[in-house]
């Protein structure tokens, strides 16, 4: 295995708010409490000890959700440990993407598992349980109905309304037939097909299918999977839903925060006046206030204040938090220390600290999930032959090609020296013009600009000529970067785990678990060599 760590700020794929957070920049410090270190997580633990979570309701709910699923002793023990006051959770959340969606689904969960293990080793008198929070109430089906396999989009063609977790898996047999052809033959291909079949064709809802799939991939590590679309868990959240309906606290507090945050950073999400949806089996629509009544958007349902509070008390499961309130719901029902998410997630969590303070809920430590580029041995050899470093792979393709052509060419393709010489000559001409006739200065400047532009054109033409001359090398550079950065995007944001599983099989996840370090806070480029994987 070869590992190269690259600072996130040098990849060009992460926003300023994320890179500033990782650097603990002064501009971002007001928007979180404890930065993500082992020592700060201990501080968080001491604060979280004083908060009250209804552990009995949480564990009872988990028992019911795991009733029909076979899991490991470690996961069962972790569920029981949640009853203990010295047990805390490390949580990540994700949509119910078809067949896990992009690779970063795995990296989120691996970060959660590994941080739990690191904390247990550091603070053995406490217990730490990794949680995967399924986004079962999300209604954006278009974002999750496909996964990419070798530049082909595998699409689940289905009409959807309401929460995706409640969707029937009917029709996924068509997807199964499609992937059966694409995955081909071999032991690993057979395992993938069987996993898809067991997950999606032998479970009736997308929630159950995703739970089965994720449990199969990670249960030996004690991962606990939670579906918060649950009446008993929502009952614990009633006071906060009531506050939202009556006072719109999240709207007021988050707007204050984004006014300050927006002075230096792009705002990730803007709050609604009421950050709740009304949820049924058939729809999930916003709750809005019109003419002093609560209206369910795009429906005929309306409630007076007393009616909606009665509805909340009798049917809390019908009230669904949006992106602004979902983090609060999570922290209310879990004894949580840390939330692990991607850059976009951290950006909207940073908008929420003052809201949490206003409603007296502990704001968690935020940790950027692991990011990785997985390179095969064959790809590593190609990079070596082309003399491309891991860091150079993150360059835009035209810049990477230009850099490598300049390195390979026998000609001097960089006209920087000539530009500097020309600028020096025109500086001397300006001095002469000032001494003779100052009106010539503009003419001198115009001529300087013309000459510099001419040099720029010549430089581009020479580079273009060298590209033609080294056409085969250019094609090889493009081919390897396109493999590792499909559609010029990060591999982890596009590629599905099945592509790598076909090559590495059951060794893939243990290898990632062993080599991805949650608190490293750098991008990992990993070369996986099959013979070394066997030693994991």
What attributes characterize this protein structure?
536 residues; five-stranded parallel sheet; alpha/beta; five-stranded antiparallel sheet; 23 helices; globular; Rossmann fold; 14% strand
Describe it.
The chain is an alpha/beta fold and 536 residues long. The protein has a domain at 24-165 and 204-371 and 490-536: 3-Layer(aba) Sandwich (Rossmann fold). Helices cover 49% and strands 14% of the residues. The chain is built from 23 helices and 15 strands. The strands form 4 sheets. It has a 5-stranded parallel sheet, with helices on both faces. Strands 10-9-8-7-11 form a 5-stranded antiparallel sheet. It has a 3-stranded mixed sheet with strand order 1-15-14. α5 links the parallel β2 (87-94) and β3.
Write the layout of secondary structure elements.
Blueprint: E1 2-6, H1 16-22, H2 38-48, H3 55-65, H4 73-81, E2 87-94, H5 104-122, E3 127-134, E4 146-149, E5 152-155, H6 172-183, H7 187-201, H8 206-218, E6 224-227, H9 231-236, H10 238-247, H11 249-261, E7 276-279, E8 284-290, E9 293-296, E10 302-303, H12 305-314, E11 319-321, H13 326-333, E12 336-341, H14 343-349, H15 353-358, E13 365-368, E14 372-376, H16 377-386, H17 397-408, H18 416-436, H19 441-469, H20 471-484, H21 497-504, H22 508-515, E15 523-528, H23 530-533
Parallel strand pairs: 2-3, 2-12, 3-6, 12-13, 14-15
Antiparallel strand pairs: 1-15, 4-5, 7-8, 7-11, 8-9, 9-10
Helix pairs in contact: 5-22, 6-7, 7-8, 10-12, 16-20, 17-20, 18-19, 19-20
């Amino acid at each position: 295995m070869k590992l190269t760590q690259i600072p996130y700020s040098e990849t060009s794929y992460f926003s300023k708010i994320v890179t500033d957070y990782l650097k603990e920049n002064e501009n971002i410090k007001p928007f979180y409490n404890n930065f993500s270190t082992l020592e700060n997580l201990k501080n968080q633990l001491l604060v979280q000890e004083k908060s009250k979570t209804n552990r009995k309701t949480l564990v009872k709910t988990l028992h019911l959700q795991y009733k029909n699923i076979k899991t490991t002793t470690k996961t069962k023990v972790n569920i029981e440990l949640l009853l203990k006051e010295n047990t805390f959770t490390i949580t990540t959340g994700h949509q119910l993407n078809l067949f896990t969606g992009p690779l970063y689904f795995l990296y989120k969960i691996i970060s959660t598992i590994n941080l739990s293990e690191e904390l247990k080793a550091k603070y053995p008198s406490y217990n730490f349980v990794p949680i995967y929070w399924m986004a079962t109430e999300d209604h954006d089906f278009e974002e999750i109905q496909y996964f990419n396999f070798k530049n082909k989009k595998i699409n689940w063609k289905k009409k959807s309304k309401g929460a995706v977790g409640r969707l029937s898996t009917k029709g996924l047999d068509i997807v199964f037939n499609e992937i059966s052809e694409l995955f081909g033959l071999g032991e690993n291909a057979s395992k993938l097909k069987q996993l898809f079949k067991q997950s999606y064709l032998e479970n009736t809802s997308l929630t159950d299918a995703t739970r089965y799939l994720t449990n199969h991939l990670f249960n030996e590590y004690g991962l606990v999977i939670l579906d918060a679309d649950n009446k008993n868990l929502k009952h614990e959240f009633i006071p906060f839903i009531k506050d939202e309906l009556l006072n719109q606290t999240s709207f007021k507090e988050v707007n204050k925060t984004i006014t300050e945050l927006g002075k230096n950073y792009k705002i990730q999400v803007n709050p609604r006046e009421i950050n709740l949806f009304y949820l049924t089996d058939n729809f999930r629509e916003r709750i809005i206030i019109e003419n002093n009544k609560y209206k369910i958007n795009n429906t005929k349902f309306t409630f007076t204040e007393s009616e909606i509070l009665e509805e909340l008390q009798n049917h809390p499961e019908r009230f669904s938090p949006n992106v602004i309130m979902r983090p609060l719901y999570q922290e209310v029902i879990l004894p949580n220390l840390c939330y692990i998410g991607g850059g976009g997630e951290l950006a909207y969590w940073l908008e929420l600290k003052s809201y949490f303070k206003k409603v007296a809920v502990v704001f968690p430590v935020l940790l950027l999930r692991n990011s990785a580029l997985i390179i095969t041995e064959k790809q590593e050899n190609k990079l070596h032959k082309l003399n491309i470093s891991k860091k150079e792979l993150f360059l835009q393709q035209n810049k990477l090609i230009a850099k490598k052509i300049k390195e390979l060419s026998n000609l001097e393709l960089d006209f920087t020296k000539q530009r500097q010489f020309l600028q020096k000559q025109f500086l001397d001409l300006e001095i002469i013009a000032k001494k003779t006739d100052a009106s010539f200065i503009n003419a001198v400047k115009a001529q300087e600009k013309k000459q510099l532009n001419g040099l720029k054109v010549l430089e581009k033409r020479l580079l273009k000529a060298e590209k033609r001359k080294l056409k085969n090398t250019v094609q090889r550079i493009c081919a390897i970067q396109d493999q590792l950065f499909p559609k010029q995007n990060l591999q982890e944001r596009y590629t599905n785990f099945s592509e790598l599983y076909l090559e590495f099989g059951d060794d893939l996840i243990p290898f990632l678990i062993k080599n991805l370090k949650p608190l490293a806070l750098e991008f990992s480029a990993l070369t996986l060599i099959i013979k070394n994987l066997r030693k994991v």
